[in-house]
Write a structure and sequence with these properties.
The protein has 13 helices and four strands. It is an all-alpha fold. The protein is globular and about 70 Å long.
């Protein structure tokens, strides 16, 4: 798998390679989004599915947005992950049993569509053509009938005005960009030599006493998770500003991506509510329901975590420097087992995991499996390949310099 998804022997991302390899993926995905809204189209969707899968596979193994630059390898990783997501999403749409329908958001439809205002017009092709754009850009399904059971974080206060929402998102975006960069700089300062380079190195430092080595490894791993939180946060707010402005989505379609994950008092609380739920529906449809049917409810839980591990393994291998399947997939599988253990505990004792002891359990279990995962990331040079543009402007360093000079 590593040789297939690695950036070696691939073409750079240019207008020509985009039109040849990537544009067909989005065209087919758009067609699938139109068909899934119309009745009696499952045969056509199933027939289209192999074509979509072929195009996503071809794009994954043919294009390298990083241009072969190790310092920009994260771009290639994101590209492979996006193509993989498009493939599994297409599978879900192709096998949907009922047409997807728009539902009101805060008393209004989730974006401005003339055709979808009337129920009787819900099967029209014109309506489906417009709504497919929202379907493509709305991975959590807010404002759609297929996202039943989705738990969404509540914003600090409701915003209905698009200009106010965009301004508020811009403030969050700026803060999280600074926080992401500052966290990355702290990781660089306290990590072993080579850990944050493109060549990569282990998180473990044998020259340190075991206790200090453990403390530093856990601290670095915690900071890495915090960096991921800020990184996904600024990207989320960037998309929110774009889609609310350009595609006229309603601000209610963009509630917070996370719900204070550091306050989690159980693994169920962390993964089922407080961490982002972007791919929840997709994972449930592709892995959760089949595993539940075959192995029962707890088997469904493990199936979702196993699929998540496989997705991250593909993304990990896309750096082209090998990897450790047991460590990467094991992190997610063991978190699934932790969730199962909590449910068994509740069944046996009648009490849910929670409180301060639940908080300690949650992050002790996370640290146990996160440290080997972060070590694996460090070995492939992931933390030296975090720049999307070579010589990227260091926002936190510039801000600190400004404060020292003028304040």
């Amino acid at each position: 798998m590593g040789s297939v998804f690695s950036p070696a022997n691939k073409v750079s991302l240019t207008p020509g390679s985009f039109l040849t390899y990537i544009f067909p993926v989005f065209v087919c995905q758009y067609m699938m989004g139109v068909l899934v809204q119309l009745r009696g189209t499952q045969v056509y969707r199933v027939a289209l599915l192999p074509i979509v899968l072929w195009f996503t596979w071809r794009a994954s193994i043919s294009v390298d947005p990083s241009g072969g630059d190790p310092a920009r390898a994260q771009l290639h990783s994101v590209h492979v992950l996006l193509m993989f997501s498009e493939a599994v999403c297409s599978f879900v749409w192709a096998t949907a049993q009922e047409p997807y329908r728009r539902i009101p958001v805060d008393g209004k439809l989730s974006s401005e569509s003339q055709g979808s205002r009337d129920k009787e017009d819900s099967d029209s092709i014109a309506t489906a053509l417009w709504n497919a754009w929202d379907l493509l850009l709305n991975v959590r399904g807010i404002g759609w009938n297929w996202s039943r059971g989705l738990i969404l974080p509540k914003p600090a206060f409701e915003i209905h005005s698009r200009p106010v929402f965009v301004l508020w998102s811009a403030v969050h975006f700026a803060f999280q960009v600074l926080a992401f960069d500052a966290t990355a700089q702290v990781i660089r300062m306290i990590s072993p030599e080579g850990f944050t380079s493109v060549t990569g190195a282990s998180i473990y430092d044998p020259s340190l006493p075991p206790v200090w080595q453990l403390l530093r490894s856990v601290t670095i791993s915690g900071l890495v998770m915090l960096m991921l939180y800020f990184g996904m946060g600024w990207f989320y707010h960037l998309l929110a500003m774009l889609f609310v402005t350009v595609f006229k989505q309603h601000p209610s379609q963009w509630p917070p991506a996370f719900d204070s994950p550091w306050l989690s008092t159980s693994l169920n609380d962390l993964w089922g509510r407080r961490w982002h739920q972007v791919l929840r529906h997709t994972f449930l449809m592709v892995a959760g329901r089949p595993s539940k049917f075959l192995f029962g409810r707890l088997g469904g839980v493990l199936g979702v975590f196993l699929l998540s591990g496989l997705v991250h393994e593909v993304e990990h291998r896309s750096f082209g420097r090998g990897g450790n399947f047991v460590v990467v997939v094991g992190f997610f599988t063991m978190n699934g087992i932790g969730v199962v253990l909590e449910r068994v505990w509740k069944r046996v004792t009648g009490r849910s995991v929670g409180g301060i002891w639940g908080w300690m359990w949650t992050f002790s279990w996370m640290a146990l499996w996160a440290v080997p995962l972060v070590d694996e990331w460090g070995k492939i040079g992931r933390f030296g390949a975090s720049d999307y543009v070579p010589g990227v402007f260091r926002q936190s360093a510039a801000l600190a310099s400004f404060v020292r000079r003028y304040i």
